[in-house]
Amino acid sequence: MTHASAAHGTHAHSAHDDTHGHPPTSTGLDNKKIAIWAFIGSECMLFASLISTYLIYKRRSVVGPYPHDACLPPLCSTPLPAILDIPITSASTFVLLMSSLAMVLALAAVEMKDQPKRTTGERILGSSKLWLWMTALLGATFLGFQAYEFTSFVHEGLTLRTNLFGSSFFTLTGFHGAHVTVGVLWLLSLLAIDYRRGLGPKDAINVDLAALYWHFVDVVWIVIFTLVYLIK
Amino acid sequence: MATTATAPVYAPAERYVGESGVWSWLTTVDHKRIGTLYLFTSLFFFVVGGLEAGLIRAQLSGPNKHLVSAEMYNQLFTMHGTTMIFLAIMPLSAAFFNYLIPLQIGARDVAFPRLNAFSYWVYLLGALFMNSSWLINAAPNGGWFGYAPLTTYQFSPGLNIDFWVIGLQILGVSSLAAAFNFITTIINMRAPGMNLMRMPMFTWNAFVVQFLLVLAFPVITIALVFLQFDRFFGTTFYAIGAGADPLLWQHLFWIFGHPEVYILILPAFGLVSEIIPTFSRKPIFGYPVMVYATMLIAFLGFGVWAHHMFSVGMGPIADTVFGVTTMLIAIPTGVKIFNWIFTMWGGSVQFTTAMKFAIALVGLFTIGGISGVMHSSPPADLQQTDTYFIVAHFHYVLFGGSMMGIFGGIYYYFPKMTGRMMNEKLGTWHFWLTFVGMNVTFFPMHYAGLMGMPRRIYTYDSGQGWELFNKMSTYGTVLLIIGTAVFLWNFFRSHSIGAVAGNDPWKASTLEWSIPSPPPEYNFARIPRVTSRVPLWDITSPRLASEVPHTKRGDKRLDVDVASKHVGHAYPNPIGNQPKQAAEAGLHIEHATGRTAKDLGIPMPNPTIKPLICALGMTIMFSGLLFIHKDNMSLALITIIGGALVMTMALYAWLLTPLEDAH
What we know:
The complex is a heterodimer. By secondary structure, chain A is mostly helical. Chain A has one domain (31-62, 85-230): Cytochrome c oxidase, subunit III, four-helix bundle (Four Helix Bundle (Hemerythrin (Met), subunit A)), CATH 1.20.120.80. Helices cover 68% and strands 0% of the residues of chain A. The longest helix of chain A has 34 residues, at 164-197. Chain B folds into 3 domains: 2-299 and 339-497, Cytochrome C Oxidase, Chain A, CATH 1.20.210.10; 541-585, no CATH class; 613-651. Chain B is built from 21 helices and no strands. Chain B has helices spanning 2-5, 22-26, 31-60, 70-105, 113-131, 160-188, 201-233, 248-280, 287-301, 316-344, 353-374, 378-384, 388-418, 424-450, 467-497, 535-540, 556-559, 578-585, 597-600, 610-623, 633-656. In chain B, helix 8 packs parallel to helix 10 and helix 9 packs antiparallel against helix 10 (316-344). The radius of gyration of chain B is 25 Å and the shape is globular. Chain B starts with a helix and ends in a 7-residue tail after the last helix. In chain B, 59% of the residues are buried. The interface between A and B is large, with 52 and 68 residues.
């Protein structure tokens, strides 16, 4: 009966008090932080599939409009105009990049909520509401640019159904836009909590999750902007 | 034999009040109860998929039979494959993930208990959604691989493919949510001392499978999104006339589809890696190599997908590369096979039912693996592809491999889950009927295939030399059906009248056996501390654990990190020292007390219905797409928006409610 004797042997050591409360995590990190990284890993494969498909289909559309200046072989006397508007999209890209900066400041403001603020500058930097609003508004501005872009493309005769470019372009950028929309809603939800009871350092993990997601969506846009818009 | 006789000491844990009743099952967030739900649901769908297979075999038992129509036959083989893969084997694995991962790593639950419930309900509702297609006689009919452009609206205008594409999309959400949950659980909720290289082999296999799920499922999600957009919104992803690549679907599908093969087999490998050491009375041979082999299989598994596509004409370079990577994958797989054999070698092997199934896996999977190496060579594959040879191959892998491992796992873990033993005599009947039936069913298919019998044909002419083999396959299926009936009889009978199991009926080495069977809601009254990879043998069978590395001075996880408790000492590890060191470290055996988490002051998550409502809303939202093809746009919009609202509101309610009461 080794069972019993060994079990008795442990009684001498029964001083552990981890019955109460939760034991510490193995890595010391919050569970949610690990989960969001796993989620981002899977999102990478999602966008990789979308972007690969766009690239595979880039020159395969049999009818226009085309993304960049193109000519239909064998004649190249009348090139078709490019439909992608790089200057406007550069502006919207800048807006989205700035939203990541605002997100960083929002997280810092939440983390340092309890620290005393003496100067106006510290009060501005320490306002989580201001920076969350800023992030959400910049995100919404990006979505506005995208809505404008989609509408003008439709006016120029490019829809989901027109050609392979239309299908893969709208699906790819639409998926990205949907991710930005979810991010904006997430930020607005955090703002609602901030107005109701105030976000403090103990909420930093939840703001951190939103920030990681937001930066990820931002990074994906940089890849899309480079591969879809800039590289002909 | 004394293992089961000392019953009174180990009466099953008393059940705490409020555990029974339908409502408690609908609202449960306990990983063990969710695991049980997974087990029962997936066994149900295993039977459904088996009956579909039975009809297929009845139809093919002789030439020119017309038991079912060609159209019905298409629906049967599509739903047989889809059901067995997505609704039976994957959730059977999920049942074990749920039940075992927290127990094996010494945790009280998974990282996100409500997300876990959500995963289950999404699986159940997705499965019901897909199978509801039978009611309107429109079950999916495009094969489990659903090749586009065949499955685009132009060529498959019925609702059949709609059910398939939406159903898989729903099921994907379930798998992904579960994968995030288990990755977090394994990384972050291990008991002190449970280093990664001390985790039980099942948990290791499960861990690797979660990464496969996380990386493979988004790819099929996108492939399905393209197909949905093509079917519902008129995009051109798979429209060849618009210049689409006819291989796009095949590439995306198999980039998912091949890792999926390892998603199906690795959990069974994990179960067998628990069963064989226990019944050989030896620690597993070459533990680190087993871990690396698992990772290597998963890694290589992402680089072999195009071996499913040799016949489409990718050219000699692509064919060669994918042929070589496919052959390479046989190396880590072979390592596993040899390690299991070496684990048994020189051990005192006990032929319990679980062990019989485990040994059967080693043999039968090897047959399937070797026929796999045969068609990794493109010239050979061109002869074999789309014939019954391939059907024989993957049934040896999935039935001879996955299902044998899962059956072994059920016999092995049934005592832990229910507190009662399964009947060994009926188990032996089940094993031999299944083992013989499986070989009689699937071995002749090798011959039928090499003689040219193509897959997916609903009938065939006589005089081609296929009759005998098909007749044998059908007879074998009868044995399999009888065997499964014996299993189910054993399962439900043992559930109520089986011998009382006690903590550790098999004298196993891992943490789940150190606690009562069935485990109390909180699993461990005290979180264990682990000093080796066979923690329980340190107490119960020290001689068996003597060659396994143990904690030495300076093990940081035990020494420093654990709430400033000093538990580490120099452990030179001579035979007989382990019980002492395990005790000193705080490893212990817990007996059934009937005390609840409340009595012990252990915080437990509150039961909640919100994950179920959220899953329901999501399923309604997806199913609204069906009405688009019924030209009922307003009904489609109402269903989609209504479902989305229900889902969002349940999600917010869920996220704004704390997991447990403040303490």
